[in-house]
Design a protein that fits this description.
The termini are far apart. The protein is mainly β and about 180 residues long. It has a single domain, classed as Sandwich (Jelly Rolls). The strands form 3 sheets. It has a 6-stranded antiparallel sheet with strand order 1-2-10-7-12-5, with no helix packed on it. The protein is built from 2 helices and 14 strands, in the order ββββαββββββββββα.
């Protein structure tokens, strides 16, 4: 695996290094030892799948505040997404900044998103599935979010959403 730091501390692009032969290819998607050696210790305890039949589906921007904060490793396992992370850590030098990466099933690329950073994505193709590896386990009742189009962040989405949950539209302005 190759780890590339983004403009936000702890938000890391993880590229796979497939080994191929006549049968196809094989790639390691996660190894706690490799993540730790790269300075990003991550041992997920939960794996979730988001199925999205409609291109232009926007999910986000979600997070869980401390003490229930989550770290997520996100990848498209079918289709393509525009994946976005927004730094909500008040003491961070990149507070309110965002980064994005296109993730596709074809390239296996993933985005590691630390706690204190909101996450969301826009599907770029129909029938897109997104795999989440998460630590710690989800804590019901502690969900939070910021609005996908909040001017406090100025996220440059590649297209307007075709489908978005009422909850995700209704988050108040970030102060």
């Amino acid at each position: 695996m190759r780890f590339s730091q983004t403009g936000i501390a702890g938000v890391v692009v993880v590229d796979v290094e497939p080994r191929g032969d006549d049968r196809g290819s094989f790639a390691r998607l996660h190894c706690p030892d490799e993540f730790a050696a790269a300075g990003h210790p991550f041992a997920p305890v939960q794996t979730s799948l988001s199925r999205n039949p409609t291109a232009g589906t926007l999910r986000g921007m979600h997070y869980q505040p401390a003490p229930h904060g989550e770290t997520k490793l996100v990848r498209a396992v079918r289709g393509r997404i525009y994946d976005v992370a927004v730094d909500l850590r008040p003491d961070s030098p990149t507070h309110r900044r965002w980064v994005a990466a296109e993730l596709s099933a074809d390239d296996g690329r993933a985005l590691l998103i630390p706690e204190g950073v909101a996450h969301g994505f826009l599907t770029l193709e129909p029938d897109t599935d997104v795999l989440y590896q998460i630590t710690p386990a989800y804590s019901p009742g502690h969900e939070a979010g910021v609005r996908w189009d909040d001017p406090a962040f100025g996220i440059d989405w590649p297209a307007p959403p075709a489908l978005i949950a009422p909850r995700d539209k209704a988050y108040p302005d970030y102060l």
